[in-house]
TrEMBL record:
Family classification: Belongs to the ELP6 family.
Location of this chain's protein in the cell: Cytoplasm; Nucleus
Protein name (database record): Elongator complex protein 6
Keywords: Cytoplasm, Nucleus, tRNA processing
GO cellular component: cytoplasm; elongator holoenzyme complex; nucleus
């Protein structure tokens, strides 16, 4: 409880981790607020069904609060005034001169604050993918402020968990994105860093995952604990193995 997990991908797609955490927390009976900025609801729902979870059913019983960023962007940019609801859009900053994410934070806070009738085990915020907010025009400081306030409410006050995906490419010239990624790395309790193979594409090994447990954050004088595995994504699950020990190699 109260942990911040960073999913980081470089030269590959780390979205399989997002699907894992989404289905994992829903099966565990947690209240989930999913800020989906990268794909549509139907995309996540199809993958979740393969993993044995129905997002539609979770929404109907109030366990899942799903924010579809793609649809919200289109409504803000091309929607007619009459269609705008009384509640401001969480991505209100797109149509305003300011770039603060207060509306998005308010949406998360209201979604996860328990009401009297809630019987869920604990709140959980999932964001896919934080880099999209920068592409939409907000600033790195606004993104980091948003995450900071979410951590205070979700992790500290509500004793819940946060899982965030960011794309990173150390060779890119996108300094704003790298600033956000590096800042989040310093604050994370756990980092799952997925990278494509340096040698290029391989049919039997899809990439490498570095699991970094931030023991140094606990001020016990211990070094961070790092484990490195390679993985292969299959239709309904992912297999992990030590480097060079793929079944295809052996």
């Amino acid at each position: 409880q109260g942990k911040f997990t960073l999913l980081r991908d470089t030269r590959t797609d780390g979205s399989f981790l997002v699907h894992h955490f989404l289905s994992f927390y829903l099966r565990a009976g947690c209240k989930v607020c999913f800020v989906a900025l990268l794909q549509s609801f139907s995309h996540y729902n199809i993958v979740a069904q393969k993993l044995g979870v129905s997002l539609t059913a979770a929404k109907e019983r109030g366990q899942l609060v799903f924010f579809e960023g793609l649809k919200s962007c289109l409504d803000l940019l091309f929607g007619e005034e009459e269609e705008q609801s009384e509640q401001p859009s969480p991505l209100q900053f797109i149509s305003e001169s300011t770039s603060d994410l207060k509306a998005l934070f308010d949406f998360v806070r209201m979604s996860l604050t328990p009401s009297g009738s809630d019987s869920w085990k604990g709140p959980m915020l999932l964001v896919d993918d934080l880099s999209v907010l920068l592409s939409l025009g907000t600033t790195p400081v606004a993104v980091l402020d948003f995450i900071h306030y979410c951590r205070v409410v979700v992790c500290s006050q509500l004793k819940g968990n946060i899982v965030v995906l960011v794309h990173s490419n150390e060779d890119s010239e996108d300094e704003e994105n790298e600033l956000v990624v590096n800042s989040l790395c310093h604050h994370s309790d756990l980092i799952l860093w997925v990278e494509g193979l340096a040698t290029g594409f391989c049919k039997d090994v899809h990439g490498e995952i570095k699991i970094i447990k931030r023991l140094s954050l606990e001020l016990t004088g211990e070094q961070d604990h790092v484990q490195i595995y390679q993985y292969k994504i299959q239709d309904k699950n992912v297999t992990f193995f030590a480097r060079g020990l793929s079944a295809a190699v052996l």
